[in-house]
Amino acid sequence: MTNEPAMSADPFQGERPRHTHFHERQAALNVREAWSAWNGFRFADYYYDPEYEYFCIRNFCGTYDICPMQKYYISGPDAAAMLDRMVTRDIKKLNVNRVTYCVWCTDEGRIVDDGTIFRISEDTYMLTCGSPSVSWLRKSAIGFDDVTITDMTDEIAGLSLQGPTSYSTLKAMGLEGLETLKPFGIMRFPFNGVELMVSRTGFTGDLGYELWIDPSQALAMWDALYAAGKDFGIHPYGETATDMARLEAGFIMPDMELSESLKTIHFEHDQSPFELNLGWLVDFKKPHFNGRRALLEERERGPKWTLVKLDIPGNKVAEGAIMYDTEDCDNEIGYVTSAMWSPSVKANIALAMIKTPALKGDIWAEIYYQKELRYYRKMALCEVKDKPFWMPARTRQTPPEVYS
Amino acid sequence: MKRYDAVIIGAGHNGLTNAAYLAKAGLDVMVVEKNDYIGGAAVTREMHEGWFYSSCSYVCSMMRQAIHRDLDLAKHGLLLVPYLGTVAFGDRGETLIEYTDEEASYNELKKHSPHDADAMHRFQADLGRYAQLIRKTLLRTPPDPSSFKPRDIKELLWLAKEFYALGERELYEYVRFFTMSAAEFLEDYFENDLVKAAMASPGIIGTALGVYSPGSAYVLLHHVMGDVDGNVGAWGLARGGMGAISNALCSAMKAHGGELRTGSGVQQILVKGGKAVGVALENGDEIYADIVVSNLDARRTFTKVMDKNDLPDGIYERAENFKIRGSSGKVNIALSGMPKFNNVPDNPYINRGGQGFVGSLETMERAYDCWKRGTWSDDPFIESVIPSAWDPTVAPAGKHWMSNFIQYCPPKLADGEWTPEKRDAFGQTVIDKIERFSPGFKDLIVHMEVRTPHEIENEIGLTEGNIFQGELTIDQLLFNRPFPGYGQYRMPVKNMYMCGSSTHPGGGVSSACGANAAREILLDLKRPNTVPEDDCYDE
């Protein structure tokens, strides 16, 4: 017998997606082999049935792999000042063990990316975001002497646990004191000799947590979580269910509502916070920050576009629809960015970018839909909604409801 | 004393829907309910500590999503969760699994019969075609074929147009279909006994017909025409049990200003000068209203809470002859753990879905023979589902409740009335049968609630415990429901209406009867309509 390494080497190894820290368990549960990729990692679209997984988020609880999400430690005495200069929100107001949602902009006030900032100690922040941001973070640190940026993406295993039974699952796992954890708060628990960090955060509009742990204990944590969640309907969910849940909650999704400014070719095909209805994230009371001047000007004249939540009559999903001011399509006034039939609310919902002045008039969606291969077209008069389609009281309730 | 615009008798889901739409139109409405709890047959009750049973109806697919949406029932706490993975069990314990994944389902069918695996596509297309047409009629008032009113003529033309759109061949097929038996209909498609039995079983649910009785094909269709979020034929569970539907409707009704009085059974509908003027309660109270709406079944409405002398000639007799035979039983079981079934893969999707103990066409027909003789079969058809596997609110964590619907169970026994002993013997038959397919099942039982037609009638007032408020045979459908000439919710006494499942489109938790009746009432009152159109016309 000879050992021929060439025989066992995978000639495609270099182009196969990497495996996340939870891959081993998730691969076993991915009955449908429904994979895509995110930031170089193999990533599930769904595992068994997208709608089943969506309902786990709304009815039981589910886990979503956030290992591919980018995680950076920004530390040192100047960390707060640097972040405060970079993002539009006032980071000095962020207390230790609290989390905040932010956007950061170019000088022109266009969004580079959105993400969350965790203040994990006095001088250390963790920034998480969808796309790799080392380069922008380094640029943003210019002029700050005492700040260190460390890419922790591979060093922290992140798992989101969302849904009404998420709290009961974590309690069953033995996390004492979790009942006092409020939305956007952080708590720490010992787990197998390492620290398990739990934040009450998520991307589903429902009660939920995100778990952060040393990769060495990732699988052990998965096993403990799934053992605890067995009677609470725990199930992994992928991108499809996430996208449904976040749209119902009215959250924006990169590459759907947001075209990252640094990657956008066409003029103003990126977005400003005001255009995405995120003006509440822009704090002009704090000193200078990236994009401040441009954003001040934009606030004065008003955004060109405005992202709106739409309730659309009928049940034909308005995916890719162009919007008009009249039923006869006289003037184009915008486009749908995301659309779905909401199984929880039983409504035909969408997010759409509308030219701001057109918001005063009617909004008609030109919807194309298919019936056994043949295409049909219909016009639907849309209703603008102020509130998220789905945001139950339990999302913010502390202590959360116990299932037993 | 306060006078209401409308009083609705019975806080079942249709009564509440009706009241919600009348209240939404600005009417002052009062719903009276005999029980201390609401919901009628769409009810959740804690029958054993920590276990919440959907005591009567247990799954949902006909609920009009246009109503769910329009009344904002999600905000009022309603979440409908589809469930997956139904397994049919044959006489010899063989199984047929209905997977969510089309490819998997095809492979499964192919194991039983390659022929049937192919034929399934044709079967579903044909059934889908029939279902689609019927679905379009659910949230509409049937036209009166004897009327020359423009509205009726228009509606008749619409219906004719829909029928003709099927094409000539299908038109003939459809008419045949309405009068066929489920078994005969299936013979056209399938060869495998278990496949046939599994597909035929919806044809007898809630019906005093056998799989070989003419008319059972339509009942089959009635059970598969619903959908959950556009997934036709899918069934859902209400989070919190079926009572969550009634509770959400009640909450919506109250949000529009409607009122509810529980523990207030109606003694009689008050009629003066040929007009309904209110109701007299069993406790002697009288509630006056311009309009009286009965959500009770047709038999109960006209023979129990109305004076025969207040009715035009012949109506009382029609009500007495209204076909509303009791045929079903229900056994609700609290379990200390999840049962395991033979010949079923032990995975979280399949082992927890629905179970159809269908046996074979012959077994089902034999069970029907027993019903005819006034007894129950020792090998009945049981349709089971374990809602706690899909809903964390209805049983303690790790424990389960199983809903078992049994066909058949006679309203009266050959050897006399039901007694608690006979009821328990019936329940024993059911668990004996399940034990055959799930050894050790009996050891898991913590509590059991056995319901024969006797209990169902006594508790929620459905005559003979008929779950549809009257059989779904063509003589009692569309404009003939409940009686010819009274298919538009207006009843023979002025200012009196019906809004329950005895009216079009019949049984099932659809809210359609209640909503249709509200639309007719508002039309008579010359008030703007508040009832939405169905959203199925683009399909």
TrEMBL record, chain A:
Keyword Metal-binding included in the entry's annotation: no
Residues annotated as domain GCVT N-terminal: 39-286
Claim: Hydrolase is one of the keywords in the record: no
Pfam families: GCV_T, GCV_T_C
A single cellular component GO annotation: cytosol
An example molecular function term from Gene Ontology annotations: transaminase activity
Residue ranges annotated for the Aminomethyltransferase C-terminal domain, each copy included: 307-367
Species name: Parahalioglobus pacificus
Name this protein carries in UniProt: Glycine cleavage system protein T
UniProt xrefs under InterPro entries: GcvT/YgfZ/DmdA (IPR028896), GcvT/YgfZ_C (IPR029043), GcvT_C (IPR013977), GCVT_N (IPR006222), TrmE/GcvT-like (IPR027266)
Binding site residues for substrate: E210
Keywords recorded for this protein, A-Z: Aminotransferase, Transferase
UniProtKB/TrEMBL annotation, chain B:
Domain Amine oxidase per the UniProt entry, residue ranges: 15-322
Pfam families in the cross-refs: Amino_oxidase
Membrane-traversing stretches: none
Gene3D superfamilies to which the protein is assigned, alphabetical: FAD/NAD(P)-binding domain
Molecular-function annotations in GO: oxidoreductase activity
Record's function text: Probable oxidoreductase that may play a role as regulator of mitochondrial function.
Subunit-structure text: Interacts with COX5B; this interaction may contribute to localize PYROXD2 to the inner face of the inner mitochondrial membrane.
Entry protein name: Pyridine nucleotide-disulfide oxidoreductase domain-containing protein 2
Species name: Parahalioglobus pacificus
Lineage: Bacteria, Pseudomonadati, Pseudomonadota, Gammaproteobacteria, Cellvibrionales
